[in-house]
Amino acid sequence: MSSWNAEPARLLNKNCTTLYTNVELNVELECRASSTFENKHTTLYANAELNVELECRASSTFKNKHTTLYANAELNVELECRARSTFENKHSTLYAIAELNVELECRASSTFENMHATLFANAELNVELECRASSKFENKHTTLYANAELNVELECRASSTFGNLNVELMSNVERRANFTHLIFRCPYLPDGTQ
Question: Which domain of life is it from (predicted)?
């Protein structure tokens, strides 16, 4: 397995090009600060094992403008975007046919901006997307086709909102079956009277 000795903070700009990853890149990018991947007007064929292992724990951003990401290989991204990493997929389509195994633990303030929609993940989403079969994520005007087992397990316990065009899912509180409203009235007023 060949190794590609790349500099840690190297910026890869591929303008109007095509990147074929049929060889073993094995990038092993430890983009722990602010590394960016800009693929403008390009196409990324991920037929090889990228095995990116991105530990983007600070503010790394992935911008795929006017591009198409074919995830036929095992990306195994394992993104632990615990701070404020953002995924902007503008005018793009993400085909998640391979094992993404994203395991997004966006527990702080990570935002997902998909053109006309915004997913505020201020609560514990604990998404654990297992898009292993033929699930498609089409972000064209924000349409989510969940043909595979998403197993979202959304525990939106605070104030997470899902805005998809004209639809808002407000999951401010957990509405449980045994939740009761207790009204307590003090028998004595502040002046001592009942």
Answer: Eukaryota
Which sequence spans correspond to the domains of the chain? 1-194
The helix (H) or strand (E) run that includes residue 18 is: strand 18-20
The conformation of residue 177, written as its DSSP 8-state character, comes to T
Report the chain's terminal Cα–Cα distance, integer Å.
84
Residues in CB range of 163: below 8 A, 6 or more apart: 117, 118, 119
pLDDT value for 191: 60
d(CA 152, CA 130): 9
> What is the Cα–Cα distance from 23 to 5, expressed in whole angstroms?
14
Report how far residue 79's alpha carbon sits from residue 60's, in angstroms, rounded to the nearest whole number.
11
pLDDT, tens digit (0-9, with 9 covering 90-100), for 1-19: 444 444 433 334 443 333 3
Contacts of 50 (CB under 8 A, 6+ apart): 21, 25, 26, 27, 73, 74, 75
Which pLDDT value is given to residue 36?
37
CA–CA separation, 52 vs 68, rounded Å? 18
Q: Which of 82, 22, 11 is nearest to 50 (CA)?
A: 22
Low-confidence ranges of the chain (pLDDT < 70): 1-194
